[in-house]
Amino acid sequence: MGGGGSTRRVTFEADENENITVVKGVRLSDSVIDRMKEPSSPSSGRQHRGSAAVNDEELKRRIAEELALERARRDSEAQKRRLFGKLLERERISSNEHLTRAILRERAATEEERQKAQRYARQLEEKDRELRKHDAYYKEQLARLEERSAQFYKVTTEQYQKAADEVSARFK
């Protein structure tokens, strides 16, 4: 990138005030044009037409340098954009992977909670059956005790009546 020479031909010429006019093929920034206008030697004033060939060569060299710098800058910016794009893509992929892992963890936790709830429901049903069984047993025992108590009461009442009748008959 930018290492090879350009095959594009650039034609330019100087006007009467020795300003540079690009005739075909290149766009130059204002800063490049300003630098091209600067005198390359410390002498001031108008230069001779004989040194115009040297200035043309110097000018061509400076333009080539400026074009190479501009091309390198564009290549660098394009590379930065590509790297930034790759970085964004990696971040997106990483974010998606993180989200996927979080979703899977949440699903696993939800499944675990569901299984735990089912286990507790089974335990609760088992306890309920056991309580019903105990309730039936104790009701049966209570019924037996009440029956026995009623029998004892009947027997006791009969014995009391009999004893009362005997005492009454004896002390009459």
Record the SSE blueprint.
Elements (H helix, E strand, L loop, with lengths): L10 E4 L5 E5 L5 H8 L14 H119 L2
Antiparallel strand pairs: 1-2
Quick recap of the structure?
The protein has helices spanning 30-37, 52-170; strands at residues 11-14, 20-24.
Description of the molecule:
It is built from two helices and two strands; from the N terminus they run E-E-H-H. By secondary structure, it is mostly helical. The protein has a domain at 58-171. The chain has a two-stranded antiparallel ribbon with strand order 1-2.
Name a few traits of the molecule.
172 residues; mainly alpha; two-stranded antiparallel sheet; 2 strands; 5% strand; rod-shaped; mitochondrion inner membrane; mitochondrion
Strand percentage: 5-15%
Question: Tally of extended strands?
Answer: 2
Described by strand count, sense and barrel closure, the largest sheet is: 2 strands, antiparallel
Report how far apart the termini are. 144 Å
What is the succession of H and E elements?
A: EEHH
Task: Give the helix/strand class.
Answer: mainly alpha
Number of helices: 2
Any low-confidence stretches, pLDDT <50, length ≥5? 42-50
